[in-house]
Amino acid sequence: MPVVHKTGTVKSKQGSNTQSQKAPAAKPAKAASKKKDEEDGTEMGEGDEWMQGKTLIKPLDQLDLTEAELKEEFTRILTANNPHAPQNIVRYSFKERSYKPISSVDQLAVHFVLEGNLLHQDSDEARRQRAKQGLPEEKATVETAVAEKPETPAAGGEDAGDVEEGGGEERADSVESKAGKKEQKITNQFNFSERASQTLNNPLRERGCQTEPPPRANFSATANQWEIYDVYLEVLQKQEKNKEKAKAVPKKDDDKGKKKMMLVETQSDDITKVAKVAKIIERMVNQNTFDDIAQDFKYFEDASDEYREQEGTLLPLWKFQYDKAKRLSVTALCWNESYKDLFAVGLGSYDFTKQGRGMLVFYSLKNSTFPEYIYPTTSGILCLDIHKHLPYLVAVGFYDGCVAVYNLKEETLQPIYKSTAKSGKHTDPVWQVKWQKDDMDNNHNFFSVSSDGRVVSWTLVKNELVFTDIIKLSLAGAVSEGPEGVQLPIMACGTSFDFHKQIDYLFLVGTEEGKIHKCSKAYSSQFLETYNAHNMAVDAVKWNHFHTKVFISCSSDWTVKIWDHTIKTPMFTFDLNASVGDVAWSPYSSTVFAAVTTDGKVHTFDLSINKYEAICQQPVVAKKKTKLTHIEFNPVYPIIIVGDDRGYVTSLKLSPNLRKKPKEKKGQELPKGPEVEIAKMEKLLSLLREPENSNA
Amino acid sequence: MSAEVEETLKRIQTHKGVIGTIVVNAEGNTTLITSTKVDYAGLLHQLTMKARSTVRDLDPQNDLTFLRIRSKKHEIMVAPDKEYLLIVIQNPSE
Fold this sequence. Notes:
By secondary structure, chain A is an alpha+beta fold. Helices cover 24% and strands 28% of the residues of chain A. In chain A, the strands form ten sheets. Chain A has a four-stranded antiparallel sheet, with helices on one face. In chain A, strands 6-7-8-9 form a four-stranded antiparallel sheet, with no helix packed on it. The radius of gyration of chain A is 73 Å and the shape is rod-shaped. The N and C termini of chain B lie far apart (31 Å). Chain A: Consists of at least two heavy chains and a number of intermediate and light chains. Interacts with BICD2. Interacts with CFAP45 and CFAP52. Interacts with CFAP53.
């Protein structure tokens, strides 16, 4: 094999070239290095030999050089270039049609070549040979040995054959043993087989589990002061409820309560929830429609009153009517003390022949088109009264003699109490009812007067009306003979009564005969006093709000009379040219009163201004045929309501002249007003008795 | 109860000058009764809430009773409830 030597720069003196025998001139480079090596290697041995036989033999063709020339240094370079390689090989280029030098010359010099006779054991040739030999296929070393043998078959001959056999046997053995070993292991880089083993992979399975996602809801809210307040209230209420439940002993109540709650909830559907709001809206709508009336009600003051000193006017405001009550006449009017805009209207009939149903209707000034409460009744109502302190209790007297009490808070249309024949109802129409103060047992009670001559007190005891006859109105001196000779006193028919404002037990009763009796609750059989008041039935008798002694009465005999209860004759008498239906004192002045007549006029009197005449006489209803039946002053506002026999109620505003308060004494406040009023009245009265100096 | 309320609503509708009536529930959906325009519901709902919020912010114990908006042409009256809103449009000058 060719060996490539390292290049090196060798400086050698040309002079000592005596050892050039071994080095042929053709190979100076290698020769030089070889030489040196050989020289080093065989220095001792051959040097000695040389030294011994040194005789300085000069070759014949050696150059003769001078000393200077001898010392001249020649540079010798060792390169890897092949010195035998031509440096200017030229080839013919057909492309250029000329000879061209080859750019690079192959510098490879082959020194030694030996062809081997190794065969790869897996190659075809090897297999063939093996097959020839009859040996099993084996690995390379064995094969090479085997391969060598066939290559030198001729040279080997018998020896080879013996050797071969022996070797073959050996080899066979060794082969066998080696085969066993070889089967176990051989890893060489030529014959590497990858061995791998795989563990058993468990089959993968995916298992998943999904829970139901928690329910989501979007929540948004605002935190305001009032929201916080609301929540606090709720918590408070709950706490209170819990406390109540803790206190409440019977569980039945809870169940009932729950049932009630359930009922309430089921009843309230869409429409009913709008109820309250609808009411408000209705009022608003009415306010808009009757805007001018509302404005008048509040602010209008008749300016012309300044010019008419002795006269006043009534300004018509709202007109209240209910469709279903058209044929009925207004038989009773009453303002509510607590809710100043609410008043009650009792509807029935005064006509003896046309007796039918009746109605109890409540109106509010805020809504003139439709009543607030409606209670239809089987019999006509003749009178009603609203309790002063409990504005939801209404006592009603009927034409058929019954009395009933309604509770406005209840949703039913039935009265909570009603008197029956057993419980002492009147046998004749009840003309007047009036609430009294609670008795000693804190039960509510009221009085009624009727044509059957009885004044009865009714007490509301739990679920019953308990009646007590207070007094029986007997005609004085008139005694009739009964069937068995028993003398029955003939009963007078009471048509109206009124209780004294301050003296509780004192009351007046007016009768159909025209007499007025002053009675006391304490004495049931005797009257304190009797006044021959009128020629016809006394329609109304009313105490003065301020003056304790004065009362007024009116009758169908066209007269209105003012009395001092200590004097048997009337103080004042007014003739109104028509049957007087009702008369009422004003709540703000002791000398002002109003009366209504069947000719549709309202007569207003102010005794301090004009003692003989009305300062205002005004027809109130459009048609003259309608008879006015009742009149009431509003306790707070300067309006009056007038009922007529067509079922209408008209409200009117009093002009300033009608509302005059005494201007005489300045600096007098209202609480002292009553005294002034009293004084005023007294003044008037005294003028009638005897002339006196008035206390202005 | 419901008959009374229905009657009241009927009366309102037939009242002089009333152009339309709308009932709006809490979410702002309308159960119309009579109306010419539906836009009122959403807009007025918001306004009422704002008004109520104002009133109550000033005094939490107070609450809005009703709201009147008087314009040149007519008057819009809104009465809120816990759940509902009743809107009535009236022409007051008639």
